[in-house]
Amino acid sequence: MDTRDTVFIALFAAIVAALAVFPPITLPVIAVPITAQSLGVMLAGGVLGARRGALALVLFLGLVAIGLPLLPGGRGGFGVFLGPTGGFLLGWIVAAFVIGDLTERFWTRLNFAVAFAICFVGGVVVLYAIGVPWVAAVADIPLGTALTGSLPFVPGDLVKCAIAAGVIVMAKRSYPIIAQR
Amino acid sequence: MLTDLHVPGDSPLHRVRPLAKILGLMGLCTGVFLVDAGWLVGALGAVVLAGYALAGLAARHAWAALRPALWVLAAIFAAQVWIAGPAAAGFVVGRFGVLILAAALVTLTTRSSELVDGILAALHFAPRWVPKRRIALAISLCLRFIPLVRSVLAEIRQAQQARGLDRNLSAVLVPLVVRTLKTADEVAEAIYARSFD
């Protein structure tokens, strides 16, 4: 970790924060709107790698916790972590780490399909594995019910994986940051 | 440019030290989850609402804190009514309401800068292996660069709008990421040039 890494962490946290003001895009087939901010989570891991990506999200969520309105709709403060979906926010850190770690492992073979699979594992499988049991535990509902309630978001997340995978591959071609492992 | 959610005031709640408020909030969270009692949630709800009145906050502040969680809470309420009946549903949703309102009360009565100062002061006592200067640098850089990245994002969207691509997320995100990474390298060089390490 040197100064350059610190700057990358800080500026990527700023990207995630800036993406909150991007208006949600509603795709024609699925009704659930797509917010750009969770794309930032996949990009943090896929562009910066495991450690820097996860630390960028730690910094971002830290700034949210101290009351800066950096989530979509100008939300922020401790309340967002204590609400039912707080697990998804904290899961962002782990998701970015997993995506970053897999991207580092597959760095030389990275293409769209590989990046898509990586984003799916980290940004959907791992994220839901943290967020869904959290909802079930704090809201006292069975795991199955919580999972069913989260399923409508999966199609939108798949679209996000595709967009993030494209951006990660393009960023690798034009400005590679991750060192080959 | 970068505002926080703090509502200025001079009430006792505004003047209490941030650390005390955070510890109180943590105590409250642990309490409502450890003690599974409806009367406790009701009593704490009354205390929290009294806190809003004491801090001179309006009902719209409390409503603004609850509104984003409303849909999820409604879904949980429906699921709970179906599983355990209306009393249990009211308890679970009421518990969330109290937690969210209490957390928002801390946020509304505390400046972000006070909390940043608190973090940096706490870092002073952190063990040696904690990279204190780097953490302080990362926090201040991020606060400085959020407005900048926002304006870059707006600029790129306008440029892509001229090409009919402003609804295309990758056409906006690729230039945003690449430009930010370049800026980061320039900033890092500037910091090296000033012998930060």
Automatic annotation (TrEMBL), chain A:
This is Biotin transporter. InterPro entries: BioY (IPR003784). Gene3D superfamilies: 1.10.1760.20. Belongs to the BioY family. It comes from Sulfitobacter sabulilitoris. The keyword Transmembrane applies. It is found in: Cell membrane. GO terms for cellular component: plasma membrane.
TrEMBL record, chain B:
It is found in: Membrane. The chain crosses the membrane at residues 37-58, 70-93. Pfam families: CbiQ (PF02361). Keywords: Cell membrane, Membrane, Transmembrane, Transmembrane helix. It is a multi-pass membrane protein. CDD domains: EcfT. One of its GO terms (cellular component) is plasma membrane. InterPro entries: ABC/ECF_trnsptr_transmembrane, ECF_transporter_component. Belongs to the CbiQ family. This is Energy-coupling factor transporter transmembrane protein EcfT.
